[in-house]
Amino acid sequence: MFKPSLTLIALVVSAPSLANDAPNDMERIIVSGSRVIESIDEVPASITVISRKQIEDHLKVNPELQSLLAQMVPGLAPDTGSSSNTGQSLRGRAPLVMIDGVPQSTPLRNGSLGVKTIDPSALARIEVIKGATSVYGNGASGGIINYITKQATAQDTHEGQVSLSSRFSAVKLEESAGARISAAINGKVENFDYLVTASYEENGVQRDAEGDILGLQYGLSDAETQNYFTKLGYDFDQEKRLQFSYNYFSSQQKTDLADVPGDINEGVKTYAIHVPEALQKRGKPQGPDGNENITLKYTDSNIFANSEMTLDVYTQDIENVFFFSPNLANPDEGYDGGQSIIRSEKRGARAMFNTAVDFDGVEATFIYGIDALKDTTSQPLVDGRVWVPEMEMDSLAGFLQTKWVISDDVIIKAGVRRESIDLSVDDYETLKLCRSETQCSVPLQVTGDTIDYDATTYNIAIKYNWSDSFSPFFNYSQGSDIADIGRLLRAATVDDIGLIQTEASIIDNYEVGFTSLFDQVRLEVAAYRSTSELGTTNSFNEVTGVYEPVRAPQEIWGYEGLVDYRISETLNVVATYSYVEGKNTEADVYLGSRQISPPKATANVNWKPSDTLSLIVSYLYVGDRKRFSPNADGDYVGDQGPISSYNIVNLSGQYQFAENWNAFMGVENLFNSDYYPARAQSYTYGGYNIKGLGTTATLGVTYSF
Questions:
Q1: Nearest-CA neighbor of 80 among 641, 686, 678, 697?
Q2: R_g of the chain, CA atoms, integer Å
Q3: Rounded CA gap, 611 and 654, in Å?
Q4: At what angle do helices 65-72 and 52-59 cross, to 10 degrees?
């Protein structure tokens, strides 16, 4: 059972999207961190808003969303350089990824593929809420990444855009050239509006700084990605609207290559080569295989006095295919390996009301409603074996969030969420898995059950807009998190699900900070602390060769800073720094890199010398983190490898050479740094020791109509 406890969270609003906006234009940026649109000056919450322009600028360098997020979001771990965001935590914990508020992550069996669920060309902006929150329910122990999709903007007409580009290695061109096309059209006819976006991309092979093909585990070489998104709306009148949206996303690696395994302890990289068909990458193509989202939303902005109502229902079907692994072998049954699939189906319904009341100069907002969700998730193997049995979660939650604006300067927020969860699992047998003929796990019959969770979580925050030069904030909040239950079930060592440590966690967050605006300079500083009585880490069992989950109390702490300096009308610089650290407080040992990332600094220089020309230089610094010692054999294990610092510089630009035409270019890793990404250095698991991308160029053109 959950035990109600209190937590503090204070949140800073980061908006490095001011490259083309005056700092005072911050007042016009709106976010939906509280599930309603509000001014950013009234949000005592840790939110980074990534604008549409920033998304478009980064697309010129790299089309991957996790690369964009790592560059723009303080507190988010560095880019992994792959299709997987495992190890890319947010303030040391897992974020919940959403599209327009609909969950995309699979918390019951977190395969860390949720970040890659939609093409950036379909997005209007991205909102990142840092620190555990229960606003949207289970899975947001580290915060929320909410992809906000585009809306139709044309009035009584039609508008559109088509973009063509190619991305290739500048180190060794052979087989590296890929192609990408994206298109969008929107319009409005009387009360009906529509938006349609589509994108298709085929990658060539990706090469490191030495010209070798990057290893294939979660790789992007030869990946085929397609995304189709549509949004249809009908305004019954000025107050009532019905909206339908559909998203289809697929990204799979279809390659004829095979890996040459390396060893990070020996400093030897994993890379890919062409081999005869019998030795090629086995199994189905890895990656999301046709993930779908459908949402129907009805809004009435005046359902009763000063009140707005939003009703929505949604469905989501996910099928994420993983790589073929020899660690899933069972020689007794004739299996020399295996390939797993995370299947997840979500069916949800939500009713939310937003009521505004003026109490003699005190503006109050009450946000309240009910959320219902059925989440059915499993992890079978392609060959028919079941690694994680089907888990069925039914959740019903009621919530109340309030905001009080006093004298336009003091903002107080407080809220409560009560959630009831039933998690059902039938009887099952754990898999016998062998790393060698003599190193195997022992299969176990486990009796299923229905486990009931009840959680009451609270939040309270205050922000004082004392002056432009000093706006302090303090925040306290809780997040409720059912840990990665699938990982616990597949590694069960007891014969009854009721005896497995499946208890959920309450994450307590504390944060304090301030924002300051001096003429052309904006500063943001925040420090935070996060605690939980039942965190989840992995421990390697040297007898069975299996990584087993360990539940233990955790404490995570850190700080972040941002400087936004408009040097002139044509030149703007945004720099960030973030530091996070954490411990298992029961054993008094540091947490591994699956949760804790090394220090990170970024800088983005935006120069726009004319209305038709712009250039951007972006810089990423990843620092050292060396908290662990090798074992008796001199090897590092698990996620405890030492991380050494590295630096990456990117360049992008665009030029409008005709009224409706733009040419653009981008160069990733401009100086061809030869490095291992942070995850590749710290993860000693086989196949992760893959070097970072060498110098890679993008050339393209966009036509607007």
A1: 678
A2: 25
A3: 11
A4: 120
d(CA 549, CA 570): 52
Which one is predicted more confidently, 22 or 498? Answer: 498
pTM of the model: 0.92
Report residue 646's pLDDT band, with 50, 70 and 90 as the boundaries: very high
Helix (H) or strand (E) holding 167: strand 158-169
* Residue 304 in tokens: 């009763």
Three-state helix/strand/coil letters over 438-467: CEECCCCEEECEEEEEEEEEEEEEEEECCE
Domain annotation for the chain: domains and CATH numbers:
30-704 (2.40.170.20)
For residues 442 and 688, give the distance between their C-alpha atoms in angstroms, rounded to a whole number: 27
359 burial via Cβ count (<10 Å: 0-12, 13-18, 19+): exposed
What is d(CA 409, CA 41) in angstroms, rounded to the nearest whole number?
9
Q: What is the dihedral of CA 655, 657, 658, 661, to 10 degrees?
A: -50
Secondary structure (DSSP) of 486-503:
HHHHHT--SSBGGGS---
Q: How far is 211 from 598, CA to CA, in rounded Å?
A: 27
φ, ψ at 58 (rounded to 5°): -70, -30
337, burial (CB in 10 Å: exposed 0-12, middle 13-18, buried 19+): middle
Over residues 395-440, the pLDDT tens digits come to: 999 999 999 999 889 999 999 999 999 999 999 999 999 888 778 8
The strand pairing partners of 429, in sequence order, are 445
The answer to whether 118 touches 99, Cβ cutoff 8 Å, is yes
Q: Among all chains, which residue has been given the structure tokens 């009713």?
A: 351
Measured between alpha carbons, how far is residue 225 from residues 40, 67, 181, 221, 292 in Å? 35, 16, 11, 11, 14
The two tokens of residue 354 are 């937003």
Contact 249, 201 (CB under 8 A): no
